[in-house]
């Protein structure tokens, strides 16, 4: 039997994803083993566990994208012991094939004039797949897809960045360094080590203004998206970081455009308070502090 894309259902954490394409990749890490004096072999050994990924392109519908929430929920330092917290682990199902320990590795969006807003996401996981492929016969529920026709651009950067107007297009890119940690004898990781995270935003405008300091320039850009029926923002993407490059381009028969690239290695400005620990006020008579000179 030949299956069509409409027969394949994609679900993450019990949420149905409206995707235009999806790729599920399961790969081993093996090396050839040679005996002394041999130049050919058919024997291999594994030098790492399974390294698998789920890559998909999905439409943004406006109810605060569920995939976007993993940016702030995975791999953050939390609690008084400052230990890494895996946060909400992603479980997924692709056509009936399931995994239970996924982590968001990248999330990229391109904003272009008069086009629907789509995101490209990559979820990595380190366990084998369960289940078997089964066709789906459920109809897809109708969704209101966000379009760049309903977009506003906010610039709250410092004055040094220059005038930014006539916004043409933009891109938003989040990446996270996700690494499995194994114990000897195990093929499934005991825990996940999270490295550096970064958010980059590229912006194209048609006014070539401003300059670039060798230390960069503090920048703060925000993109708001609204539904077709109203002006209230239902989704937004923010990049507060440092302007690291400018590029001015001109082509015969086309306009002059100005590319700005902003990078940030801290994807949130929100401070979290996990509790207040009272401390005993010291008694000056215990010799901790010298007595006051009252004379």
Please, what is the average pLDDT?
77
Q: Radius of gyration in whole Å, from Cα?
A: 25 Å
* Fraction in beta strands: over 45%
**Structural class label:** mainly beta
Residues in helices, as a percent range: under 10%
Total domain modules: 1
User: DSSP helix count?
Assistant: 1
Low-confidence stretches: 269-275
Shape: globular
**Biggest sheet features:** 13 strands, antiparallel
Query: Terminal Cα separation, in Å?
Result: 99 Å
Characterise the protein shown here.
The chain has 295 residues and is mostly beta strands. The chain has one domain (8-29, 45-275). It is built from one helix and 17 strands. It has one helix at 70-73; strands at residues 10-12, 15-16, 19-27, 30-32, 44-46, 51-59, 76-78, 83-85, 90-94, 97-111, 118-125, 151-155, 167-181, 191-205, 217-226, 233-249, 257-264. Strands 1, 2, 3, 6, 9, 10, 11, 12, 13, 14, 15, 16 and 17 form a 13-stranded antiparallel sheet that branches. The protein is globular and about 65 Å long.
Draw up the topology in text.
Layout: E1 10-12, E2 15-16, E3 19-27, E4 30-32, E5 44-46, E6 51-59, H1 70-73, E7 76-78, E8 83-85, E9 90-94, E10 97-111, E11 118-125, E12 151-155, E13 167-181, E14 191-205, E15 217-226, E16 233-249, E17 257-264
Short description:
The chain is mainly β and about 300 residues long. About 0% of the residues lie in helices and about 45% in strands.
Relevant terms:
295 residues, mainly beta, 13-stranded antiparallel beta sheet
